Amino acid sequence: MLMQTAELKPQVKLLSRAELDAYDPEAESWQKQFTRRYTHHSELKNVLNNIEDVNETVYSKFAIAVTPYMAKLMDRDDPDCPIRKQYLPSFHEETRPGFHTLLDELGEEGDTIPDTSVVHRYPRRVLFLVSNTCAVLCRFCTRKRMVAQPDGSVHKDQIERSIDYIAGNKDIEDVLLSGGDPLTFTDERLDYILGQIRERAPHVRFLRMGSRMVVQLPTRITPELCAILEKHRVQMVNIHINHPKEITPLLRRRVKMIQKAGIMMGLQTVCLKGINDDVAVMRELFMQAIEMGVRPYYVYSTDMVEGAHHFIVPHHRMLELYEGLRGWISGPAVPTFVVDGLGGLGKLPIIPTYVHEEIRADGQGTTVKCRNYKGMTVEMPGLGLDFRVPSQSNG
Predict the structure, then answer these.
(1) How far is CA 27 from CA 23, 34, 219, 369, in A?
(2) What pLDDT, on a 0 to 100 scale, did the predictor assign at position 386?
(3) C-alpha–C-alpha distance, residues 382 and 17, integer Å
(4) How far apart are CA 222 and CA 360, in angstroms?
(5) Quick one: which of 44, 88, 170, 326 has the fewest CB in 10 Å?
(6) Are residues 219 and 343 in the same domain?
């Protein structure tokens, strides 16, 4: 039996261009909006111009799904619109890069507990994949192996065994619900899963959730949902935004609803070529995030999953982007840049060298050279010494 999601409802009539222009997402339920998703590039040709034709084989690899809300945010004419490029299939997905791509680049399956959907890589925290459904499908999705795939569904018995595992392992202190997207579940199913974790695993000290749906379909955030999150003491919701154009007045209002429930909010971003690999874009994105009380958390390199090679930003450019943020915008607005190591190595920070130790020219020990965000340097010889404080004698 599959867990209950909005996707199980029948599809209704798609919006035309005129209807989309006049569309008010707050005028109908999030469930109905979910059923109005565009699921083929030919459907989007009715509301957007200059849609690229792609081979049908692209859909055999990864489906397409775009909510009316996201379609309305897309530039009608510009194929380089940063929102369009994230969600519309491209001919690049039909080509093979000069390097190897993987279905499970992060090696999550190797750390998945058998017969569950729990990825237990780190000693005291787990990733709990509760759904394989998202409101809108990102072309660079790191979990293409399961998201929107018929054989990737998370079944009810898997959910139950996963909760059993978390309840039976007292060392687990941190549980992250992800997917897919947990918010594709009905309120009732979320209430059940969160309640079971809190009731059966009191040793869990930090319960958090990752969701792109907050951005892709903000009306999913309702007073009823926020009451459930507050009731079960969900302490953090991480949302995924890649470009300032995704931050709308509606999103800001719904984020405020989550915050009023006493929940911390973090931001995760993927560094994407041609979308946000620009210092000015990232500065604006992270300052807008911190302005609405959402703390930038991670900027990920694009994973080397099949069909996403054209989004990859070189390592040296990511270093440049980081240097364009630190010192130039508010400190709390600067996220950690990371690359996910192949085969389950985990998140590895991408950090420029601001402080390094060198052997002194006279050969007498070492000195530390420091560089600030403007490139100014200073030598600090004292930091190269290992001062030993003698213990006091009682005699």
Answers:
(1) 8, 14, 10, 59
(2) 60
(3) 67
(4) 62
(5) 170
(6) yes
Banded model confidence at residue 385, pLDDT cuts 50, 70, 90? low
Pairing of strands 236-240, 206-211: parallel
pLDDT at 22 over 90: yes
Query: What pLDDT sits at residue 345?
Result: 81
Q: Is the pLDDT of residue 20 over 70?
A: yes
User: In terms of residue numbers, what domain contains 177?
Assistant: 108-349
- DSSP summary character for residue 180: S
| Pair 342, 360 in one domain | no
Q: 305: Cβ–Cβ under 8 A, 6 or more apart, which residues?
A: 101, 102, 103, 105, 140, 141, 142, 144
Considering the chain, what percentage of its residues have pLDDT values greater than 90? 69
- Residues annotated as catalytic (active site), given as ranges: 121-122, 125, 134, 138, 141, 143, 303, 340, 347
pLDDT higher than 50, residue 266: yes
Give DSSP secondary structure letters for 294-324: -EEEEEEEPP-BTT-GGGPPPHHHHHHHHHT
Residues of the chain by 3-state class (helix, strand, coil), percent to 5: 35, 20, 45
Task: Give the start-end residues of each E strand in 181-309.
Answer: 206-211, 236-240, 264-271, 295-301
**Residue 120 three-state SS:** strand
The answer to whether residues 359 and 223 belong to one domain is no
Beta bridge mates, 358: 367
Of 66, 93, 120, at which residue does a domain stop?
93
